[in-house]
């Protein structure tokens, strides 16, 4: 452990401060495709019983009409967060008629691109904007990519932690409390970039995919069976260049060295035309095709593994919120759905994520120059495609080759003091138990989720889609055999009804035309200082 990390841990471990570590906030967003009983993508509209995808606070859709997104409140204890997520799953499963929630991140057999439904949000100005944005995504990246699902883990430390750490820093730090907090979250993001390859090794769960996913594109995958492609040592094809990819975004690699440069890189991208998109234009025969012809239509289009975030006000854009009020939390975006788990994530993973993120927040985090930033990207991409390869070498922090297993064990050793501190705060041993479970995966790559996926497919002689459908059915059985109690069921039904009423009111009371609305939305980003 570094001297800085040791000092910060001692400060937070003092009796007067230890309880602050029980006040971190955790939120989860889980995406999952709706599929029919044969595992084919559902072409039905968003079920009315689930409410309005535009205005429901917990149940919405992501890019496709068939891609549900479940959103929990932010809770101090991940156990409560997972209980919230479980309740949403059980309600949704109870309302689906002849459909399942798809178990893994990668989709099964998909229809032709034209038949994949883009998410609909009604006739309000904001609802139409969300739909046109998704039309733009389909135009730019194809609809197939919109059918990939993941888990997003939102994390923040108690606000009181930051002034405590700032007071302990080198005397003379004249930054405002807000700027210091933002700088520390940006430093967390830098360390996340350095070490997130470890998360892909430990929790990656997409080593295989349905053969039609690539739509005939060239690839270097191996054939598992007639219907399945894979890589033998892969951990997460979802996070490889086969999943989320964009030539337009290839030059957009914020290294999180400070908040202003991060904001400026995104502001520039949403204001800079990209010639291939400009050739297409924003409209054809009067119909909107995309919101604009810039590198990014909006800042959320940037495919990053972690995002610094701030809760936005109504009508406010994400980078406006960051610019005005600084960073409030981080959103981890690289996590695969574990197909063996009904929720796609469990408490052991959440406890480890807390250890990992607290380490990233407290450990020294020097700025990343271009070479080191590229090294982080290279390590990440190497692990998602070859993470379980025996003797795999990565580019270490000293720029020298280091074996993945050696570096992973070194990091887990450095995490030990973090786990002990979190256990002391929570009065449990769950963080240390999770740490020990991850050591087991490093010692035995066959115990990782990605290896387990391939092993079960081989043992059962299943294609990827057959494997995923079997687990989807099992999870559906679990949710339906554990129905919500009458009070919880009524609460979700009321939320659904209220969201539909809210959407209707929005559509009835809005003023203005759509073209003007899009123009104002686009202009709002240009007012930020350069």
Can you offer a commentary on this structure?
The chain has about 525 residues and is α+β, with helices and mostly antiparallel strands. It has one domain: Creatine Kinase, Chain A, domain 2, CATH 3.30.590. About 45% of the residues lie in helices and about 10% in strands. The protein contains 17 helices and 14 strands. The strands form 4 sheets. Strands 1, 2, 3, 4, 5, 11 and 12 form a 7-stranded antiparallel sheet that branches. The two termini are about 40 Å apart. The mean pLDDT is about 95. This is Glutamate--cysteine ligase. One of its GO terms (cellular component) is cytosol. InterPro entries: Gln_synth/guanido_kin_cat_dom (IPR014746), Glu_cys_ligase (IPR007370), Glut_cys_ligase (IPR006334). Belongs to the glutamate--cysteine ligase type 1 family. Type 1 subfamily.
Characteristic key phrases:
single chain, Gln_synth/guanido_kin_cat_dom, ligase, alpha+beta, Creatine Kinase, Chain A, domain 2, three-stranded antiparallel beta sheet, 46% helix, glutamate-cysteine ligase activity, metal ion binding, 530 residues
Question: Which helices and strands appear, and what pairs or packs with what?
Answer:
Blueprint: H1 3-13, E1 25-36, E2 59-61, E3 67-71, H2 78-95, E4 99-101, H3 125-141, E5 151-156, H4 161-168, H5 177-195, H6 197-203, E6 208-210, E7 222-225, E8 228-230, H7 259-269, H8 275-280, E9 283-284, E10 287-288, E11 306-309, H9 318-325, E12 329-335, H10 347-362, H11 370-386, E13 393-395, E14 401-403, H12 404-426, H13 430-443, H14 449-460, H15 464-481, H16 486-509, H17 514-526
């Amino acid at each position: 452990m570094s001297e800085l990390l040791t000092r910060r841990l001692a400060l937070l471990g003092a009796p007067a401060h230890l309880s602050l570590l029980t006040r971190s906030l955790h939120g989860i967003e889980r995406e999952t495709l709706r599929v029919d009983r044969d595992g084919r993508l559902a072409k039905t509209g968003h079920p009315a019983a689930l409410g309005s995808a535009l205005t429901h606070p917990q149940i919405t859709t992501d890019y496709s009409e068939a891609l549900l997104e479940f959103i929990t409140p932010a809770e101090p204890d991940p156990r409560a967060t997972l209980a919230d997520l479980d309740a949403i799953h059980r309600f949704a499963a109870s309302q689906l008629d002849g459909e399942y929630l798809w178990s893994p991140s990668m989709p099964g057999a998909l229809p032709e691109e034209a038949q994949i439904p883009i998410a609909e949000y009604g006739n309000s100005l904001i609802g139409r904007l969300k739909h046109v944005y998704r039309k733009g995504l389909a135009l730019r990246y194809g609809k197939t990519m919109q059918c990939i699902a993941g888990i997003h883990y939102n994390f923040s430390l108690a606000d009181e932690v930051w002034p405590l750490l700032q007071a302990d820093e080198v005397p003379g730090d004249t930054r405002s409390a807000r700027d210091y907090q933002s700088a520390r979250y940006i430093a967390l993001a830098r360390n996340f970039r350095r070490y997130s390859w470890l998360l892909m090794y430990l929790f990656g769960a997409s080593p295989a995919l349905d053969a039609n996913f690539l739509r005939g594109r060239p690839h270097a995958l191996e054939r598992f069976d007639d219907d399945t492609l894979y890589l033998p040592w892969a951990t997460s094809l979802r996070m490889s260049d086969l999943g989320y990819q964009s030539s337009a975004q290839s030059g957009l690699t914020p290294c999180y060295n400070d908040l202003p440069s991060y904001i400026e890189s995104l502001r520039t991208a949403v204001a800079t035309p990209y010639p291939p998109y400009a050739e297409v234009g924003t409209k054809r025969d009067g119909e909107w095709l995309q919101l604009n012809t810039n590198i990014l239509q909006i800042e959320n289009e940037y495919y990053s593994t972690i995002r610094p975030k701030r809760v936005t006000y109504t009508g406010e854009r994400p980078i406006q919120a960051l610019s005005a009020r600084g960073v409030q939390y981080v959103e981890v975006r690289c996590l695969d759905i574990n197909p063996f788990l009904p929720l796609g994530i469990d408490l052991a993973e959440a406890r480890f994520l807390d250890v990992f993120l607290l380490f990233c927040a407290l450990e020294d985090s020097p700025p990343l120059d271009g070479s080191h930033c590229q090294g982080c990207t290279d390590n990440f991409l190497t692990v998602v495609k070859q993470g379980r390869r025996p003797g795999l070498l990565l580019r270490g922090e000293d720029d020298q080759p280091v074996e993945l297993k050696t570096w992973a064990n070194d990091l887990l050793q450095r995490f030990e003091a973090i786990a002990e501190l979190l256990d002391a705060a929570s009065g449990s041993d769950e963080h240390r138990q999770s740490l020990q479970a991850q050591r087991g995966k490093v010692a035995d790559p066959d115990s990782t989720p990605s290896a387990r996926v391939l092993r079960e497919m081989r043992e059962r002689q299943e294609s990827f889609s057959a494997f995923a459908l079997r687990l989807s059915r099992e999870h559906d059985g679990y949710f339906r055999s554990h129905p919500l109690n009458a009070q919880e069921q009524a609460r979700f039904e009321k939320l659904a009804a209220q969201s539909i009423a809210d959407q209707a009111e929005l559509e009835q009371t809005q003023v203005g035309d759509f073209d003007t609305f899009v123009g104002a939305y686009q202009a709002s980003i240009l007012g930020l200082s350069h």
